Amino acid sequence: MRIMAAGLNYRTAPVHIREKLALSEHDIADVLSGLRGSKSIMEGVILSTCNRTEVYAVAERKDQFMRELAYMMERKYNLSQEQFEASFYLHEDNAAVEHLFRVTSGLDSMVVGETQILGQVRDAFLYSQSLPATGAVFNRLFKQAVTLAKRLHTETRIGHKPVSVSYAAVELAARMMGSLAGRNIVLVGAGQMTELALKHMQARGADRISVVNRSYNRALEFADQFGITAEPWESLGTLLNTAELAMAATGAAEPVVTFDMLRGARQHRSAPLLLIDMGVPRDIDPLAEQLDGVTLYDIDRLGAIVNENAEARAKEALKLTPVIQKERHDFTRWMKELGVAPAIAALREKADAIRESACQDMLNKLPDLDERERKVIGKLTKSIVNQLLRDPILNIKELASERGGEVAIEAFTRIFGIEEQAQRLAEPEGTEASDAMDPRNAIA
């Protein structure tokens, strides 16, 4: 088994490429089903955010996995082979594990140390698990990644100051407009990103804010929660007539703030209008910046905004590399132990069967033993078996984690005559067999 992480992010692909792969849950289920149906992967998790789309896979063959992925990207999402090769990266095995740990901890984010990605990775894993598209390897790996990220954000200063994309958007607006107090501000969308932006704006004194959302009830709930004004979706064009700042993040497939809408608004105003598009796919027509008096920043331009906190976080991130590498080493060791788990479980199964058979023969020859005496004999024989197996199990675990571990495992199964049992346990069916495969459960 090999662990792979293939994808694109804000470094390797511009927004017009990334928005093609802003995958919904339905899309994710479809892609995972297609890849697993072609037998190119055994386990899979897809992470799709505004800044990255990544496919994590447990697979046997790298070349087959990448061919299937490229074919699917072209057929379903109109990503040409040339675009795929130019945008997609691939990390394998240890590098893939370390990449996931860095992504989940916010060390690979556009804004280093941001915490939103932690929840996005967790949600991506839980959704893939519910399909179900994960197994023993990813159930362990992603839980370890989430636990590590939580610990790093608690124990270090990597997330000491708020520097999310939403924060960067508000920081930009404040720098360009001065005080946000008394400014007419429109929020398009009532999701998590606009919520974060709103909190930062209110912290800077913004007090004249309206929100529009396709669901008016959601807009009302949002407005009531934060003490702002909710307006119907149909009033967006009118609101832009007087707005000085508009921020958008809706998740819509096409721009909701259109060029014609903005051109009409310019006819009713002379004051400048600052537009900040935090959405992928984009929520504001990129042609808007052709209009006089309109300044547009999309998520890529936001990524270029660097403030004082970014440098401090980058320095803190360097200190975390040894921690990430230790976690990767721990997982790699567990993976190698997972490979020996069927052999250990098979040895335990054979030893228990021999012990039980011998005990039964002895009890048949000593029918006058009372219940207490029978229990004493049972405990004694179990203790003997455990003590005999302790050193072989510890030694094979150690050998399995070293170079040539597969050869050591093969010799181990031949010495104890457990080849068939180990092969059977290596192909688990159902929860009971899966538990036997876990090295934590295979050792008494």
Share in helix: 55-70%
Looking at the overall shape, the CATH architecture of the largest domain is: 2-Layer Sandwich
- Percent of residues in beta strands? 5-15%
Q: Please give the order of strands in the largest beta sheet.
A: 7-6-5-8-9-10
* CATH class (first level) name of the largest domain: Alpha Beta
Q: Give the CATH topology of the largest domain.
A: Beta Polymerase, domain 2
Radius of gyration: 29 Å
Mean pLDDT: 88
Note the main sheet. Answer: 6 strands, parallel
Structure class: alpha/beta
Classified in CATH, the superfamily of the largest domain is Glutamyl-tRNA reductase, N-terminal domain
Tally of individual domains: 3
Binding site for substrate: 49-52, 109, 114-116, 120
Domain Quinate/shikimate 5-dehydrogenase/glutamyl-tRNA reductase: 171-303
Organism: Paenibacillus aurantiacus
Binding site for NADP(+): 189-194
Describe this protein's structure.
- Helix content is 58%, strand content 11%.
- By secondary structure, the chain is an alpha/beta fold.
- The chain has three domains: 2-160, Beta Polymerase, domain 2, CATH 3.30.460.30; 165-310, NAD(P)-binding Rossmann-like Domain (Rossmann fold); 325-442, no CATH class.
- The radius of gyration is 29 Å and the shape is elongated.
